[in-house]
Design goal:
- The complex is a heterodimer.
- Chain A is α+β, with helices and mostly antiparallel strands.
- Chain A has 5 helices and 5 strands; from the N terminus they run ββαβββαααα.
- By secondary structure, chain B is of the alpha+beta class.
- In chain B, 28% of the residues lie in helices and 24% in strands.
- The chains are: A alpha+beta, B alpha+beta.
């Protein structure tokens, strides 16, 4: 027997997508496999690593712990939505490039979305707050040293770009 | 002249796509509604005979396309997986089948392979397979393996896969005659690489050209290619393997072929559809490889200065249920254990033991962390016994700078002599002491003690054989656009190869850095290659790329000299333009030289039109003269006689809470010598990552198997990898650059170094803080608390 499919309308990075998914389909899988937005990565499928973090109405959430059907009527931002309108790197992305905040790049999208939300809430983090901001995401390559630097650099870049 | 890029912190070019979410990892390939997805039924039992597998219900499930069990496999696919690295001492090598035949030997072993419309349905189908088992007694842990009351493999007596002994001099006699003697028993538990991206494979069979394309998250494209061809009965020329972006490797992805790397192509060909397998996290814990579990017994004899007279090490290596990667890990422990020291007389013997657990293959450091831990614990024990400074005892045992090349008299992992090429250990020791504040520490420790706080300092030294052979190659192609396309066969899993290799090409060729594009791990572009492991990529492919660029440059200069009617020695190449030195008007750009290199000259583009003003070649000879080739390319291979030996020293200051036994890192310092640095930013990044991974291994991570062989912590909830909260806020790093005489760039590998001394340095520091011996790592606060209680009971 085929699975029952549900019509869902997902608004991702400002674009509206209509798709049909089974009730059990994870938002992470819907983004990646149904909408082909493969920038969101899946590292553990149990909400611990943070690689799949996307912004749901501006809040960082683990897309591997959300069903696609429960994400309707929300505004979702993925890593693909963090670039500037002209295609250049957004401030958090730029900071990661400048500070060597990534190596294999697999966990990076989750850090970028998490930090984007974190800096929206706290635009001028102290050093300890910058460390706190990324304390829920796992990275196996960088040892976090340069990611912390990137948080602090991103805060400066955001300030420069908005002033 | 332009500034050399070698040695400068060039920003990474690959970051542009990673940061935009445009990386292409294997699960990002073939994202369309037509791709089929695979799931694997894995054994829930550590040791059992398979009586029957019933798949009847599976094919009734809507969306399921096929299911395979062992009985469906034929020809080479029905044979055991290859034993990749045989060794004469591996008398009882055993490998698994792609799908279990008759018996399973660890929780997680593949039994059946289902292909369906999506992964959800494939997992539903796996749940419908019924397997009857006859349970066998599992063998878990080194003690049980040695006791051999039960056997993992019926035909492997004593559970002993291998026994290997090496001797330099007569260690037992030297120890017996030494002024002082000590014995130590030292344990290291299992951990695992745990890359953020697990394994994954996609395959597509093109029936129109009888050709298979495989994308896989591997550390060796060429290895997978050869394995797939042999197992599927295809010619090598029918198989292309492309390694896309890889989300971390750390060793586990050098193993090949994984069952799924064969089953996915098999299914793709059988079904005529693209098939994908993406490992989930639980699968990674129970069906990929682990490392590190070893027990060591040390006997050492030394003089009044702490100088080694003889060292006798016996150790037992838990290699899990199978031994596809041979004896690489214990051989490395047994040889690299010596670090920067001269043992004078050395005997080492190990047994490699089977257990009913996930197999063991190299994890970053590959046996070195255990060896370093064993040697450095021994150094600390000697210092404690003699009441000497730990740094002094190390210093009297160092190989001195004027003693290189230094032959340790052993055979290394690559089958070559363990001969160190260069190094300066006394200089490193001075640097690390200054960096961590070694000499000032006793005063600080006393000051802290007065305030009721316990702190300790630790030191650990290592030498790492890097850049092992046999070879790597490179191809450099200058297109008519002036762009330079570079290919090397080994793969990339985060090291920034696209950047560092482009730096080398720009320097040698004189082209613009931004015009260089590097491709790695694509067998269509470079079919001869080894792989990315053993800190070898920069040394091996870096050298090969340098040599290939040199060849391309020779051809550029030859053609340009002809075109410009100048002498080759009068030419220079700057920013992609060849010109006569001192006469900038007389010049030709690389793209135009590329046009001239090919006598077939349809004027497709501006470069071709521009080339019409030049005339090259002798009209009296063939358009492509003998010994020449059309096109502007350079290709070369680098194959060194032996490995190059990097080295380093770490020091850490920890605080241990008197009540809770919580262990806090107050300072972490690293001195690192990997010869000349290509990109110091990337090298420091490797050190940062290694240190964090080492902290995980020393203080948090272990594989918690119960006595029945169930892995109790197979999730990120329970296997404690460091978050930022577990790593120190800042790592002090100093570099020493002792060039390697073995390669044209004077470089040594850097990838694994950061993780090697971690268990050793933390054990040293915690011992210093607590005042009693630390002999088992990793160590958690509760274990430290238990040690304190045990100590208190012994005293009372």
């Amino acid at each position: 027997m085929s699975e029952e499919l549900h019509d869902v309308r997902l608004v991702v990075n400002g674009t509206t997508h209509h798709t049909q998914v089974p009730a059990r389909r994870l938002l992470s899988d819907a983004l990646r496999h149904d909408l082909a937005l493969t920038g969101t990565h899946v590292g553990c499928e149990h909400g611990v690593c943070g690689a799949c973090t996307v912004l749901v109405d501006g809040k960082p959430m683990r897309s591997c712990l959300i069903f696609a059907v429960s994400a309707v009527d929300t505004e979702i931002t993925t890593v693909e939505g963090l670039t500037e309108p002209d295609g250049s790197l957004g401030p958090v992305q730029q900071a990661f490039a400048e500070c060597h905040g990534l190596q294999c790049g697999f966990c990076t999208p989750g850090f970028l979305t998490t930090i984007t939300a974190g800096l929206a809430e706290n635009p001028c983090p102290t050093h300890d707050e910058a460390r706190d901001m990324i304390a829920g995401n796992l990275c196996r390559c960088t040892g976090y040293q340069n990611i912390v630097k990137a948080v602090e650099r991103a805060a400066v870049l955001i300030e420069e770009r908005t002033s | 002249m332009t500034t050399k890029l070698m040695g400068t912190p060039v920003q990474r070019v690959e970051d542009q796509r990673f940061l935009r979410g445009e990386g292409r990892y294997v699960d990002d390939i073939a994202v369309d509604g037509r791709t089929l997805h695979a799931a694997v039924l894995r054994s829930p039992h550590a040791h059992a005979r398979i009586i029957d597998i019933d798949v009847d219900e599976v094919l009734d499930l809507d969306g399921v396309h096929a299911v395979w069990t062992y009985d469906d496999l034929t020809g080479p696919m029905a044979e055991p997986l290859p034993l990749l690295i045989p060794h004469p001492a591996l008398t009882h090598g055993r490998t698994q089948y792609a799908l279990a035949r008759d018996e399973v030997n660890y929780v997680g072993e593949a039994i059946a392979f289902v292909v369906a419309d999506d992964r959800y349905v494939a997992e539903d189908a796996v749940g419908l397979i019924k397997v009857s088992y006859e349970f066998l007694k599992p063998v878990v842990g080194i003690d049980n393996a040695r006791a051999a009351q039960h056997l993992v493999h019926e035909d492997v007596p004593g559970n002993i896969g291998a026994r290997l002994e090496q001797n330099v001099g007569d260690a037992p006699a030297a120890i017996a005659a030494a002024p002082h003697r000590l014995e130590l028993d030292l344990t290291v538990e299992r951990s695992a690489c745990m890359p953020m991206e697990g394994r994954g494979t996609v395959a597509r069979w093109d029936a129109d050209i009888d050709r298979l394309q495989v994308w896989t998250s591997t550390q060796t494209s060429t290895g997978v290619r050869a394995a797939v061809a042999v197992k599927l009965g295809l010619d090598l020329g029918q198989v292309d393997v492309i390694t896309p972006d890889v989300g971390g490797g750390f060793g586990v992805k050098i193993v090949h072929p994984w069952p799924e790397e064969l089953l996915v192509p098999l299914a793709a060909r059988a079904l005529g559809r693209t098939v994908k397998f993406t490992e989930d996290r639980r699968e990674h814990f129970i069906s990929s490889a682990h490392e590190r579990g070893q027990v060591h017994h040390v006997e050492v004899g030394f003089d009044d200065d702490g100088r080694l007279c003889g060292l006798d090490v016996e150790f037992w290596h838990d290699h899990g249920a199978y031994s596809p990667y041979g004896l690489i890990v214990p051989i490395i422990t047994s040889t690299q254990l010596l670090g920067p020291y001269k043992p004078n007389n050395y005997r080492v013997v190990f047994e490699s033991l089977y257990t009913n657990t996930v197999m063991v293959t190299p994890y970053r450091g590959a046996g070195r962390p255990q060896g370093c831990y064993t040697m450095e614990r021994t150094m600390d024990a000697i210092a404690a016994y003699l009441g000497k400074d730990r740094a002094e005892v190390r210093a009297v045992n160092f190989i001195q700078p004027d003693e290189f090349p230094f032959d340790q008299g052993l055979i290394f992992q690559d089958g070559r002599e363990l001969e160190y090429d260069s190094g300066d250990y006394p200089a490193s020791l001075e640097k690390i002491k200054a960096l961590v504040g070694w000499d000032e520490f006793p005063a600080y420790q006393a000051e802290m003690a007065a305030a009721g706080r316990q702190v300790g300092i630790g030191l650990a030294c290592y030498v790492e054989g890097t850049g092992v052979g046999p070879y790597e190659g490179a191809h450099v192609h200058i297109e008519t656009s002036g762009k330079v396309k570079v290919a090397t066969g080994l793969t990339t899993q985060g090291q920034g190869h696209a950047t560092v290799f482009a730096q080398l090409v720009a320097d040698e060729l004189g082209c613009r850095f931004e015009d260089v594009e590097v491709v790695t791990g694509d067998t269509r572009r470079m079919p001869y290659a080894v792989g990315t492991f053993a800190s070898r990529a920069a040394v091996m492919s870096g050298s090969a790329i340098h040599l290939a660029a040199k060849r391309a440059k020779e051809k550029v200069l030859k053609i340009a000299a002809d075109a410009l009617e100048a002498d080759e020695s009068d030419l220079e190449i700057v920013a992609g333009v060849v010109s006569v030195k001192g006469s900038p008007g007389s010049s030709i750009d690389l793209g135009t030289v590329s046009v001239l290199s090919n006598p077939l000259r349809y004027a497709f583009d501006e470069a071709s039109k521009a080339a019409t003003q030049f005339s090259v070649g002798d009209p009296g000879r063939a358009p492509v003269p003998e010994g020449e080739e059309p096109g502007l390319e350079g290709k070369d291979f680098y194959s060194p006689e032996r490995a190059t030996f990097a080295s380093g020293m770490h020091a850490v200051i920890v605080e241990t809470d008197p009540l809770t036994a919580e262990i806090t890192i107050l300072k972490y310092a690293v001195v690192h010598d990997c010869g000349h640095l290509i990109n110091p930013m990337i090298v420091e990044g490797q050190i940062h990552g290694g240190v964090a991974q080492g902290i995980g291994g020393a203080l948090y991570e272990r594989m918690a198997y119960d006595e029945s062989g169930q892995l109790l912590n197979a999730s990120f909830m329970d296997f404690l990898m460091p978050y930022v909260t577990e790593v120190p806020d800042g790592i002090d790093i100093d570099h020493l650059e002792t060039p390697s005489p073995l390669n044209p760039l004077g470089i040594k590998g850097a990838g694994e170094a950061g993780v090697i001394p971690s268990a050793a340095v933390f054990a040293s520091a915690i011992e210093d803080a607590e005042g009693f011996s630390i002999t088992a790592m990793p160590i958690s606060p509760s274990e430290l608390f238990a040690l304190r209680q045990q100590r208190a009971e012994e005293k009372s």
